[in-house]
Specification:
Pfam family, one: PAF-AH_p_II
CATH class: Alpha Beta
Number of helices: 18
CATH superfamily: Alpha/Beta hydrolase fold, catalytic domain
CATH topology: Rossmann fold
GO molecular function: 1-alkyl-2-acetylglycerophosphocholine esterase activity
Radius of gyration: 22 Å
Strand order of the largest sheet: 5-1-2-7-6-10-11-12-13-14
Keywords: Hydrolase, Lipid degradation, Lipid metabolism
Shape: globular
InterPro entries: AB_hydrolase_fold, PAF_acetylhydro_eukaryote
Low-confidence stretches: 1-6, 404-446, 542-583
Family: Belongs to the serine esterase family.
């Protein structure tokens, strides 16, 4: 048993967020009956919506209650057992595993529960807002590091809990008219890809788009000062007093100005983001007789006014298969809103892949087609089937190969300043790009870094943009060769913040154009050519050598260590972690 637990080797706590602000967090669950309906509720939609808010906060004083925020939510044992079962363990073994004393229960986030919201130093006196959609096997907690990093840079981040059967388990609280219950995962195979598979994913996306639209309606009401019932009392086992937090967001969120909300997601969540933006932006063009729509917003739905060409779009390791549903050809044939009339022409579109997904050619082609300007062919590529060869733990595209050693592991390249908390705290004011002041007119787009922006992070797996790479670094390295999980998320966050900054949204820190520069040479940060001209430029011998240099990721000493050598026999924990690649 000791060897089993040592094989997990999880961290004790998450690293500090990169940004000048302390981060607060609150869990929210709201009855649907208390909100305006943005559309008809889809089949199997739940009576509540749930999300976690990450936000810039005032650091609690010594005499104030500062409860730890655990990574594994309550009820912890049931959550761990459900996740183990989701990964393929028999129910009895999964249940027994959850009773083993383990460090997972105690891992905490560098955030403050129910802390006081910091007064925004922005020109309009409001914090910018970002919505984040999780992938398969995810939840509102599975991307805490990247959501917390965004909040530390001056954003209110809404991390959705999708009750569509894509999570290992979801708890739905009782309302005035419905009983508490549990939403269990829906089994949809990755292959073979049949009409039933596409229909299953379409059904999940319908629920997801409705949930995001409902959450947006909730934020509008909260910002306007309406009294919203939060079913999550945010109490602890020892302290039973209820904490009311939502009132402090009144008049604090920049959600009424069209194009000021950022939309982001990982894997299935990135595909969700694409379908949301297209479904809302083009809804007037879709036939009323089309019964296969993912969402048909009501004319007074608040989200209609928000999604415009200026809306920042951040796609992390997008899984392309759901976008190829035959029923959604209408959406596939249309570009992202960014390419609409008068839009920024892709400057506010960011796509960041893991090296594993960059190696997955069929899925890569879909990512390129989605991010590309409309001039690129919109024909679907080969369906990206996720399968493994017999005798191999990982599919071919996920078998990473280590390159030459390097010692640099800083937050930015050696030529760039670091956006650490210490370096940024001096002024505690947001600093938008010189070319993108929140009060400037559309001329600002002329100084933006030309987009779309597409990169991958060297020596990374699909799970590296979630918390799992940080929580299990030893397993990630030993089983999948994924390295430097903290740096991976730092690079992702830098790019996300800069795209938001260049969209004219005020965030913390100084201009960071280097991160979007395809020739910056930042270690492990590799540009992906989208069109044929970029392909020709990066295919030159000198360019290939430069890319190879960027991919150097670790020291010779660490690679030669006996503890890091792979072995045929793996612990149960290692096998479970390896499967995260296919489920997130």
């Amino acid at each position: 048993m000791a060897s089993l637990l040592s094989g997990w080797n999880p961290i004790k706590f998450f690293p500090a967020y990169h940004g000048p602000y302390d981060v607060g967090t609150v869990d929210v669950e709201i009855p649907v009956a208390d909100l305006p309906l943005p559309s008809n509720a889809p089949e199997d939609a739940q009576p509540t919506i749930a999300f976690r808010i990450f936000y810039p906060c005032q650091k609690p004083q010594k005499d104030e209650v500062d409860r730890p925020v655990r990574w594994i939510p309550q009820p912890q044992r049931a959550t761990i057992a459900s996740f183990a079962k989701f990964l393929g363990l028999p129910q009895k073994i999964a249940g027994a595993f959850s009773y083993i004393p383990q460090q997972l229960y105690w891992i905490k986030l560098p955030a403050h529960r129910n802390a006081r919201l910091l007064d925004p130093p922005t020109n309009n006196g409001r914090w910018p807002v970002t919505f984040f959609s999780h992938g398969l096997a995810g939840s509102r907690n599975a991307y805490s590091q990247i959501c917390g990093d965004l909040a530390a840079n001056g954003m209110i981040v809404i991390a959705l809990d999708h009750r569509d059967g894509s999570s290992p388990i979801q708890y739905v609280r009782a309302t005035a008219t419905t009983e508490a219950h549990i939403v269990y995962p829906t089994k949809i195979p990755h292959h073979p890809v049949t009409d039933a598979v596409y229909e299953g994913r379409d059904k999940q996306i319908r629920i997801r788009l409705w949930e995001i639209s409902m959450a947006y309606e909730a934020l509008v009401k909260i910002d306007k000062g309406h009294n919203i019932e939060n079913l999550d009392s945010n109490t602890s086992k020892l302290r039973k007093e209820r904490m009311e937090v939502l009132w402090q967001f009144n008049d604090m969120m920049d959600i009424h100005t069209p194009g000021k909300v950022t939309w982001a997601g990982h894997s299935f969540g990135a595909a969700t983001t694409v379908q949301l933006l297209k479904s809302i932006f083009y809804y007037r063009e879709r036939s009323e007789e089309d019964c296969k729509t993912l969402i048909r917003p009501n004319a007074d739905a608040a989200i209609i006014q928000q999604i415009v060409p200026e809306s920042p779009t951040l796609l992390l390791d997008m899984w392309g298969l759901p976008l190829q549903s035959p029923s959604q050809k209408f959406l596939w044939d249309r570009p992202l809103p960014s390419y609409g009339l008068g839009g920024p022409n892709g400057a506010n579109v960011l796509s960041v892949l893991s090296e594993a997904f960059q190696n997955w050619e069929d899925n890569l082609n879909i990512n390129k087609a989605i991010a590309a300007k409309p001039s690129m062919s919109r024909r679907p590529s080969v369906t990206p089937i996720m399968s493994r060869e017999k005798g191999h733990l990982l599919p071919a595209f996920a078998r990473l190969r280590a390159r030459s050693p390097a010692s640099d592991s800083g937050y930015a390249s050696s030529a760039s300043r670091s956006l650490t908390r210490q370096a940024s705290r001096a002024s505690m004011t947001t600093t938008p790009s010189k070319s993108s002041s929140a009060k400037t007119s559309p001329e600002r787009s002329s100084d933006r870094t030309a987009g779309p922006h597409m990169f991958y992070v060297g020596m990374t797996q699909h799970f590296n943009q979630s918390d799992f790479g940080i929580v299990f670094p030893y397993i990630a390295l030993r089983v999948t060769k994924a390295q430097e999980p903290v740096r991976c998320l730092e690079l992702n966050t830098r790019a996300m913040v800069q795209v938001i900054r260049e969209a004219g949204i005020e965030v913390a820190g100084e201009d960071d154009k280097e991160i979007l520069d395809k020739e910056s040479g930042i270690r492990k940060w590799v540009p992906i050519p989208i069109d044929e001209e970029e392909e020709r430029q990066t295919s030159r011998p000198g360019a290939l050598q430069a890319i190879d240099r960027k991919l150097s990721v670790t020291s010779t000493k660490s690679m030669s260590s006996p503890r890091l050598q792979s072995r045929d026999g793996m612990t149960m924990g290692q096998k479970m972690q390896a499967q995260l690649e296919f489920t997130i």
